[in-house]
Design brief:
two-stranded parallel ribbon, 140 residues
Length: 140
């Protein structure tokens, strides 16, 4: 999962997701404005990747509300319940997502750098170079 590494709100969500992801299904990679990874994601067809959570699962890109629904559905035994949100039109779901995303710095501030999880979970964070090479191999 890719997220805005400078966003305090995003960093808190990643920490929660790591706690909830007891099976260690996901790895996390922070994005920064000047990252080469941003350019690669844009080349893959994602507009403004820094403004969206991006999930790559089984070779499929999920972003914005679809990424959140998919992650929540994956993390709990009864997670299929979250898939009911797919019944809400995507334009409405993504509109709400964009409202939060566009105001995330005002609501929670901005970090100077991505805050890393505790040592026990540091293996779940992918460095940008590693993620870039993964994307290049996987989606080229």
């Amino acid at each position: 999962m890719f997220f805005d590494g400078n966003c305090a709100f995003c960093n808190r969500w990643v920490k929660l997701l790591i706690q909830w992801d007891v099976k260690a299904l996901y790895k996390f990679c922070s994005l920064t404005k000047d990252s080469e990874l941003i350019k690669e994601l844009e080349m893959q067809g994602l507009k403004n990747p820094l403004d969206s959570i991006i999930l790559i699962r089984n070779g499929i890109f999920y972003h914005k509300s679809n990424a959140i629904i998919q992650m929540l559905a994956d993390l709990w035994t009864i997670g299929f319940i979250f898939k009911v949100f797919y019944l809400i039109p995507r334009s409405l779901r993504d509109g709400i997502y964009d409202l939060v995303a566009n105001n995330r710095y005002r609501m929670n501030g901005k970090n100077k750098a991505c805050t890393m999880p505790d040592f026990d979970n540091s293996h779940r964070i992918i460095e940008n170079k590693e993620a870039l090479h993964f994307l290049l191999r996987r989606f080229s």
